[in-house]
Design goal:
Blueprint lengths: L4 E12 L7 H13 L12 E12 L4 E5 L6 H8 L7 E7 L2 E5 L11 H11 L4 H15 L14 H12 L6 E5 L7 H15 L5 E4 L3 H7 L2 E6 L2 E6 L1 H13 L11 E8 L5 E2 L3 E10 L9 E7 L5 E6 L11 E10 L5 E11 L4 E14 L29
Parallel strand pairs: 3-7, 3-8, 5-6, 6-7, 11-17
Antiparallel strand pairs: 1-2, 1-4, 8-9, 10-12, 12-15, 13-14, 13-16, 16-17
Helix pairs in contact: 3-4, 3-5, 4-5
Amino acid sequence: MPNARIEFHHVWKKFQRGELHDSLRDLIPAMAKRLVGRAPKRDELSQGEFWAVRDVSFVVEPGEALGIIGPNGAGKSTILKLLTQILTPTRGRCMITGRAGALIEVAAGFHPDLTGRENVFLQGAIMGMKRAEIARRFDEIVAFAEIDQFIDTPVKRYSNGMNARLGFAIAAHIDPDVLVIDEVLAVGDMRFQQKAFDRIKAMCTSGIPVAIVSHQLDRIAALCTHAILLDRGSVVRRGTPTECIETYLNNEWSTEVSGAERSPTRLQTIAVLSPAPLASGEHVRFRITGTTIGSLPGPRSCSIRVRSLATGKVLFAVASEQCGVILPQDGPFEMMLELQFNVPPGVYGVETAVWDRATQRDIARGPSVTLQIAEGMRFYGSVQMHPQMQLVSAPLAGARTAS
């Protein structure tokens, strides 16, 4: 559909905090309080209410994929529920033009007593597919889910993984005009996750508008053309996925280390010198600048950490003194760093901090930078080993080996 798009215009959404009145005994006193006081207007907050979404606007055109990121409680899932009309906005308007496909809680609509076959037709109908369309895509859906031997078994006998694979396969084969995705990029085992990711990537690059919510920041960077960062219901950053991810991680990591006012060393900037795109296994060069204050006692060392944005785990850490670099006792300095990224494709954060040799910990946070590592030589696992193979013997062409 050429005019398909996602629109979100100055949307606000409020919720009630605390208990709801589910009995007459609780309801009567609550109504009496409202009669005594002034009833709040629809766009005002009454006692116990809060804004889950505050004046959020965006438009996603065909060929664009918007990533929506932020901490828990930022309003990400509320925005997707507003888009899919599960919720209605308190103020503002939102709409989707075209048939929407929603990858949200993909197995939630299954009836446990029905077979996988029956649930394919039931779930497909719920998602707006016609029976003839479901029948046409049925074999493809079952093959993708890899449950052909169990398709006529009631889904209550399925494992959680089988349920998730079937639910995803149905939702991923509806050929929507607009796609909305909420936290389904980690469905199934590792092999199926890659298969699901490849399917979503194909849908995202097919020219339809896409909105994605995920805590897997590397997936957001790989799939999306632009992004927004939410905090407490408001947009705090718009830009490329890498820009929004970097802002998000700077905020998240800012409380990990403290004591900058007591540190004799201040780290000021980190810049990537190697040209993009960066491929797995390549050497990446950085420039780090800072200054030291000679009047303050303490360490003169810098620590570097590389963190996977897919897992949040630190993959590598080293202090400058371990590399033979001693920072000056006073004044500004510039330092060059080179790291070989023997890692799978994904998004990684490079953090800096002031390192205290006495306590063996970071005492002051420095700047950080986010890198997207593209695929080099394809491999599976968590470390790029740069294999070198050589065939040293083989049968001669046309020769037969003895049986």
